[in-house]
């Protein structure tokens, strides 16, 4: 019992050390803030542009016209501008000069001409509402001349014919059923965020853990560490420590997301789509299955990266040895993007069942509701099996890998590591 306590204590020491060493660095801070800074800058630019656009849409405008009916018509217009009527252009321009108005609209239906005047260095004014106003007035006056009641035209406009879209599905018995119309945009957005996030974490932390393992091996510190604790404990301690680092980064983004949502809703008067914040809607896209696939996918690539990092003798060789793993993830990401346009493609169907790609591709198929629950769980089981195999291989060969140093290439390193592993097992 006492030995088991010492065993667990050493494991937690490794976990805490790996976590502390990675979190308390400028590199981690840069890695966390890297995706956030463009979002913050983009949000600030968006806020500035919206403010400027609002200013352009909300202006005091002077109107000069000899058409009394147009004056009455303009007074009934409800838009963001405020309109003041002047008897002459000279009077209106004088008010423009003093800054009481931002522009002058001179309109004559008889001449069919409208002129908007503003100061060259004055505030920008969006003339779209003015164009809409004079054209609508001209249109209604033309209808009156033809003897058509404007009210009748307005009634026709209020009852447009809309095209209703229906989707049919064929069940296992060959029966055709109408599929309910579900709001896919929000679901696809969630799936894209999850798929891209997983890809981002895989690429980032695959390189990180492989680099860390290679550095320890190159410094020969592993000989001292493994003489005082089991290699399996150290291996799993590293894996858990890295997972906690990832969890910290994810929680940071979640907290930032809540803060950003609060700011955006107040500043921009914006609400998320109801289907996105509806709990039942989120459950319907099987977030649990996507979450399981995500955790298994990260575990798979991180454990594989630890094994690959333990095989190199020089840190400069790390990027070369992990390149196949990263390239595999990149292929999965692009197939995932392709899924949005061709969810029933044979390439997508097959690739989503391959464990290396399932965590990245399957969220898109789940969101589009183009996959059965059985297929999803098959992909989960396949990813679980390969992840378990990767963890077992990593824990079994970690000690022999890190203690094997040679400059004769990867194949020679693997052979020597395997021989060391066999001799240790025969000794045990």
UniProtKB/TrEMBL annotation:
Membrane topology recorded in Swiss-Prot or TrEMBL:
Multi-pass membrane protein
Keyword field contains ATP-binding: no
Query: A cellular component term (GO) from this record?
Result: plasma membrane
- Write one Gene Ontology MF term: ABC-type transporter activity
Any idea which UniProt keywords this protein has?
A: Cell membrane, Membrane, Transmembrane, Transmembrane helix
- Transmembrane domains' residue ranges: 26-49, 188-214, 235-263, 283-309, 321-340, 376-394
Localisation? Cell membrane
Q: Name the InterPro entries for this protein.
A: ABC-2_transporter_component, ABC2_TM
Q: What is this protein called?
A: ABC transporter permease
Naturally occurring in which organism (per UniProt): Dolosicoccus paucivorans
The taxonomy runs: Bacteria, Bacillati, Bacillota, Bacilli, Lactobacillales
């Amino acid at each position: 019992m006492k030995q088991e306590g010492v065993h667990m204590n050493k494991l937690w020491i490794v976990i805490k050390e790996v976590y502390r060493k990675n979190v308390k660095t400028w590199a981690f801070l840069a890695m966390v803030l890297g995706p956030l800074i463009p979002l913050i800058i983009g949000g600030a630019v968006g806020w500035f542009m919206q403010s400027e656009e609002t200013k352009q849409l909300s202006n005091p405008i002077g109107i000069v016209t000899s058409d009394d009916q147009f004056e009455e018509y303009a007074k009934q217009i409800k838009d963001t501008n405020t309109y003041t009527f002047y008897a002459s252009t000279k009077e209106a321009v004088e008010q423009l000069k003093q800054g009481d108005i931002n522009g002058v609209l001179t309109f004559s239906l008889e001449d069919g001409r409208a002129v908007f005047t503003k100061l060259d260095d004055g505030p920008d004014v969006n003339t779209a509402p003015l164009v809409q106003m004079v054209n609508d007035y001209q249109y209604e006056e033309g209808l009156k001349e033809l003897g058509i009641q404007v009210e009748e035209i307005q009634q026709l406009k209020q009852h447009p014919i809309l095209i209703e879209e229906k989707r049919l599905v064929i069940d296992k018995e060959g029966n055709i059923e109408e599929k309910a119309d579900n709001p896919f945009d929000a679901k696809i957005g969630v799936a894209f965020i999850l798929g891209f996030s997983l890809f981002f974490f895989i690429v980032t932390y695959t390189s990180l853990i492989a680099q860390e393992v290679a550095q320890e091996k190159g410094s020969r510190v592993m000989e001292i560490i493994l003489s005082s604790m089991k290699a399996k404990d150290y291996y799993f301690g590293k894996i858990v420590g890295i997972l906690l680092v990832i969890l910290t980064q994810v929680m940071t983004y979640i907290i930032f997301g809540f803060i950003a949502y609060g700011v955006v809703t107040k500043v921009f008067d914006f609400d998320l789509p109801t289907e996105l914040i509806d709990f039942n809607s989120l459950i319907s896209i099987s977030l649990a299955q996507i979450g399981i696939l995500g955790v298994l996918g990260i575990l798979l690539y991180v454990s594989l990266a630890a094994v690959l990092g333990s095989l190199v003798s020089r840190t400069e060789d790390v990027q070369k040895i992990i390149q196949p793993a990263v390239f595999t993830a990149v292929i999965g990401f692009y197939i995932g993007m392709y899924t949005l346009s061709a969810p029933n493609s044979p390439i997508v169907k097959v690739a989503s069942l391959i464990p290396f790609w399932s965590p990245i591709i399957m969220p898109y198929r789940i969101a589009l509701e183009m996959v059965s629950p059985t297929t999803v769980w098959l992909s989960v089981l396949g990813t679980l099996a390969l992840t378990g195999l990767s963890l077992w291989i990593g824990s079994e060969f970690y000690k022999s890998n890190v203690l094997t140093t040679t400059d004769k290439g990867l194949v020679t390193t693997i052979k020597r590591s395997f021989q060391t592993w066999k001799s240790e097992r025969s000794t045990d």
